[in-house]
Predict the 3D structure of the following.
Amino acid sequence: MEEKKKKRSSAKTLQTAREAGYFGKKMLANTRMAVDEGRPVAWAMVEWWLGATIAKAMGVELVFPENYGAFCAASRTAEPNLDYSESDGFPSTLCGYARNCLGYARKLKENNFVIPAESTGGGMPKPDFLLACGAACDARYKWFQALGRYMDVPVWLLEFPQTGSKEYFLPGNKEENISYMVEELRAFVSFLEDLLGRKMNWDGLEERLDILFKTHELAYKVDLMRRTVPSPAVCTDFWALMIPHLYLPDDLEALAFYQRVYDEVKYKVDNKIGAIPNEKYRMMFSELPPWHTLGFFDEVAERHGVAFVFESWNYHVPPPLLEDEKKGITDPLELIARYSYHKFHHAAPAAKEYEIDPILFTAPYLEYVRDYQVDGLMFHPLMSCRPATYTLMHVRNLMLERFKVPSLVIEGDIVDLRVFNEEEALAKFDAFIETMDYHRELRKKEGLHW
Amino acid sequence: MQKSSGLERASYIYTNRLQVARELKMQGEKFGGYLCCYVPVEMLSAAGYVPFRIIGDMNEPITNADAYLPSVMCPFYRSCLDLGLKGKYDFLDGLVSPHACDAAERVGLVWRSYFKYPFTFYLDIPHTVHASALVFFKQQLAHLRKGLEEYTGLKITDNDLKKQIKLFNRQRELVRQLYHLRKVEPPPVSGTEVLQLAVSLMGLPVQEGNLLAEEVIKEVKTRKMKPSKMKGRVLVWGCLIDNTAITSLIEDCGLEVVMDDTAIGSRTFGHDVELTEDPLDGLALRYLEKIVCPRTFRETGKNRANDLENRFSYLRKIVKDWHIDGIYMNLIRNCDIHGYEVPEVRYFFEEIGMPVLVIEQDYSTAALAPLRTRFQAFAESIEANR
């Protein structure tokens, strides 16, 4: 049985990263406490800060089943949930987070919506509604729709238009996208007001947005500092740190935490302290990691001096909105819409420059590879979070053609550890080192700056 | 093109659709490629393009696409790009790709990164049918229209669009007539023959397609039918079927394919475009709201029963009207849109007494042989309970 595989957690190189798991536990605990106190609870998809802040301003406690899926995967407790969902007829090719959640929801239902005692992290309580999202992958709404099988709770789908690189620059198109998002957010506010029987707390929303932007500004500055050689932090740090900025950016505790992250990273940069002792190769990772085997990244750092200096566009904060774009906006819903749209389209100029598509999951890497002086990329096509990886081969081609940066492709999964072969992956990595050496020379000959 | 008519001609065009397109191109036609059933073909036709539905080929191993798309994605869309990379679609003059599902969206966008057609457009499609979604979708259609006008130098007037809407409504109505003819027992036309016609229509100029459909109906209506020896009548639900290898396999096993709920079938031909004063209103409504595909989210309602009724009650009517004996749920591996739907659709069908066969297949004719025994067993069970 695969369960016998030795678990290899990552050590993480930042002290703050080692502490960040607290925020995941905090979310779970807060939702359970809310239920005890009779306050509303929702399960939400990651929706790039479009609706979660609004819901929280209305007093709703949120928990993110995607994060719960990663939690279960990292603690290697997902398999029983996966089996349970498959036995209900859900194909094994569906998103691992989704199958974990569907299996969990069935257990919850079978236990009369009392959280089963053995639930990982104390478990997620039954929600009052489900907050789905139309961005990035179809699972973000089909999964929550499928939960109707287990619980009679409404699903609200937040629309999130996605634009092609050419269409982004069509006159009027961007503003139409923003207007559409604003209209949808107004409808969401009405939905919440009807469901909860209370009016929107607009002042509360503005306060939360203020905190969110401050947290994100710090997170963005941390990203910028990671361009330094040697890199002050690596991917395993980021995947822990992303919990507060992705799920709880409007939380004062998260803001205070991110100040500490910033301070720690800045200290390392100022004192030229690398995340790994002997950084020889700077690599980038895309898109989601094998949560169950994060120790893999420590191993390649130790063996080859590989620092994963950047990763996973989808989960990073975007560059701050330009002042011009914020100027004159008085409606917080419009500010939210502009920011979320910006998250998905900030790399449109790069897409235009290189005449490529799509913007999402692809164009940002064209900027990162130069900015972070990347020697190679590791791509991780996922058996069960497939849409995040549909463009990996495309990005691989672009990196090699345009920047002479090679890629290593290692298949695996975010949740299902049965499909990740660590020994084979390490052997592939050993061979890839020479490839990076070769291309480093090639870049020099071609006048590329790293 | 071969001189034949009706079903024989449909079969010929189905088998040789790329060659037929090239011949038409030699005669001066321009081809606008498009993915999925969410692209308004009326718009392409009004701009002077023959709308050409890009499909895959289950007979062709996917090789070239391996360098561009991971193996873990939808094999149908991988196959589409594979054919493109092999030059099979080199006669296309443009490409319109919709945000129909993740795979359609990404493949369309990756496609145009490598093939620089004179005209391309990415059509974003909302996931809901909210009023604001309709407004937004109409704006997207206006951008498509303007883009086509700028590229072709032709003004696409409202009257041009209305004329095309009437022509395509006629085509949809003709195909529906053929569907209705299959309500009787024995059906005078097989599922394989209907699929051949459907695929043919998606690569012909609309008027030529309408003539072909009229010929087929005329021929089918005059057929002398013998009592059927088939074991049951099935509805195919789910992922698209673009290759008769599947319908033939089902029919060889003793089952009549009399109706479908798929994207090369009733989802394409099931609903007309309303002739509204502003034709974009009718197009937006038809393509966003009327096409019933799991990719579009419908409001969940008060509870599960309400939700299932909202989403699937049309299937109950199909089962009744077409005298369905069993359901084949066709799932192409890695299709999330349909994959999440399977347990609930299956439950819905079983609640109305329908036996169900779910198969997740790999979009490859080489992988169909092992499925024969499953269809045979399904046919036997249907016959036993008929």
